[in-house]
Amino acid sequence: MRLDVVSIFPEYLAPLDLSLIGRARRDGLLALHVHDLREFTSDRHRTVDDSPFGGGAGMVMKPEPWAAALDHVVSDGAGPDAAVPHLLVPGPGGVPFTQAMAHRLAAEPWLAFACGRYEGIDERVYEHAAARMPVTVVSLGDYVLNGGEVAVLAMVEAVARLLPGVVGNAASLVEESHEGGLLEYPVYTRPASWADGDTVRDVPPVLLSGDHGAIARWRHDERVARTAARRPDLVAVAATVGGLDDLEVTVAVPADAPELLVLQRACWMPEGRVSGSWRIPPLDEGLDDVVRGLGEWTTWVVRTPSAGGGPGRPVGSVRGRVRPGDPSVWESGRLMVAPDLQGRGLGRALLGLAEAGAPDSVATYWINTGRVSEGNIRRYRRAGYRLRPGEGSFPGSVDLTKRRR
Ligand code: JD8
After folding, report:
1. Averaged pLDDT of the chain
2. Ligand 1 touching residue 151 (CB < 6 A)
3. pLDDT of residue 354
4. Whose CA is nearest to atom 4 of ligand 1?
5. Is the pTM of this model over 0.70?
6. Which of 70, 117, 241, 248 can pair with 147 through a Cys bridge, CB separation 3.0 to 4.6 Å?
7. What is the mean pLDDT of residues 33-50?
8. Has 143 been labeled as part of a binding site?
9. Which domains does the chain have, with CATH numbers?
10. How confident is the model at residue 308 (pLDDT cuts 50, 70, 90)?
């Protein structure tokens, strides 16, 4: 990959000589060219800025030096891999930079970055560039910096570390935050028992157990809990389903159990009727069973927007877990949508939410429903599940499985 950066402070990019990115450049895994915008000025004061038309505070970066600099980058880098670069211009008003964007950019042969300063770059420079190459205005986050250099440092590192061979063990790229929608799990190293002054701090015993299945489950549960606590927005995937705007998704806690029990009984009543038996677990269970279930499964509850400070109405729920004893299987269950809100796609979104919580050890998704629940069976088939032959895991039920892509 080739990277070009244009800035009036080229020394700002010096940190990219260091560490993994520095070594990757020396190993030829990527070629980084930093250009000083002032090289492309034509006056003896090497002027790059001027006062803004229409008045206002600060200065604006002039178009001519930028056009000359970008044209130089294009002529200097054009080659068999790419005729023009993808130009990325950092700006507080840009599209958010994300891990997903980093992956997309890492797949491109040539990126160029234009670091603005002052109040920004004359808007006609964006038009000049867009007439020659793809241009994306991108923001590092919802706060204001003094220029684009810091954003470029972060974006170059986030993209370059995804290039083959840059990060020694690629496996460590997998279970990171923002890969797979969950934040990372807590990490520990020696000593297993740390005497921190007069406080002894021990590593969670499961990590010393050698039981990789249990360790995978613990790490997954830590990721879900941490994500729910710190970034509930990351689990709000079902936010806008069938006209149900701004639904709030949280990981259920014991306080949710009474409402979940009500929803559960309401949702399984039809299945009880068609199966001719009320003795099915969701209808048989009491409040204690629901609370115990919250301890054995990760359960998500979807509520309408909280009005007047109190929690909104629970309109759906689903739970998921790694199958005890087999970390390659992810079990989803208790998929429920309030009867008056069924048929809007919330069930499908909830199933996706549960599947998204599966740790990397999982290769197969599993779900179970009543043998006579044609509606559920049809829905799960549409979601890619296959009916397993024979009796399901519970009397009168069927199992369905789906291989993880
Ligand atoms: C590029 C000039 C400063 C911005 C007047 C302060 C990105 N997430 C981000 N926050 N800020 C930037 C950013 C700020 C920049 C430039 C990026 C070029 N400035 C300007 C407008 C208000 N000053 C950024 N990515």
Report:
1. 89
2. yes
3. 86
4. 119
5. no
6. 117
7. 98
8. yes
9. 2-171 (3.40.1280.10), 248-403 (3.40.630.30)
10. low
